[in-house]
């Protein structure tokens, strides 16, 4: 039996909003434990687009997903957050004294005065194409996310999908891969128009090939290495695309996972919150970022930051009832130590 660790606030999810919630809690002298199902912090920013520039973070005209997470980690560091990675929170139970007991699938148990859920789209996983033998190639020649484009230098890459990820990685990998072919079932792509135009230009210049309208049909290969991706058009004609790597970008499956079983009020797989406090339907449980919904909610990192600031204040009021919290600017209070 593992011992129960005690803390002020448990933050579920180490994406950008969870990390900023740690900072905001720290400024209010609340210590945090942070739990994430992935083996690294950063949520979507590091798992899905570590090397892509983000242009709408205030005061950063351009910052990559990976750099943003490094800065957020640095900003939260003075408050000594305890990270529990590679584990999913499976249980959340309110105790008689108003605190919460959480348990992960690895048996970690934590008691916290308040909880902030920053779980993004939930336990996220890729939408897999229904191809025979797919699993045997995963992690060696089939990938659902790109961590470093250098991993694909001089490789023959087939990208499948018609959204932002497919288009953006086609543009990025065109410089390093031996060949890039983009398979999509329609000539029209659902991505930023400017990126789509750039991709079509690369196709016209012979730097990549758009294989449209085609769908994935099968894989050829040996062991864990593919040698070709078989595609089919709507008349049933097939083509073998010689390839070392397949990147299927069919989006993420939104699976709230255990969070859906905690009795919190949901709306279309998102947690309903009071937008003035970020409190969910359970007193003492707050939520921020992509996982929440309220009227006119924007799924943007900058909105998640503001939500984290509000949630931290509301969590403080819950964890320290009767204790008045004076509003202070960081410029006047500095970054508090112990
Ligand atoms: C390709 C792409 C480009 C984007 N570009 C921009 C942009 O330019 N500007 C912008 O503002 N936004 C952008 N976004 C959106 C932005 O990344 C999200 O809004 C942001 O990541 C949400 O942060 P979050 O902290 O709420 O959740 P996430 O980043 O999704 O992190 C949530 C974390 O919670 C963990 N988790 C979930 N359930 C559990 C559980 N039960 N136990 C433990 N851990 C759990 C997950 O593993 C995950 O790490 C982009 C997204 C994508 C995919």
UniProtKB/TrEMBL annotation:
Binding of FAD occurs at 17, 36, 44, 49, 89, 124, 290, 331
Q: Oligomeric state and partners?
A: Homodimer.
Question: In the UniProt record, does the keyword Cell membrane occur?
Answer: no
MF terms in GO: ferredoxin-NADP+ reductase activity; flavin adenine dinucleotide binding; NADP binding
Q: What class of enzyme is it?
A: oxidoreductase
- Keyword annotations from UniProtKB, A to Z: FAD, Flavoprotein, NADP, Oxidoreductase
DNA damage in keyword set? no
Cofactor descriptive note: Binds 1 FAD per subunit.
List the protein's name.
Answer: Ferredoxin--NADP reductase
EC number(s) of the enzyme?
1.18.1.2
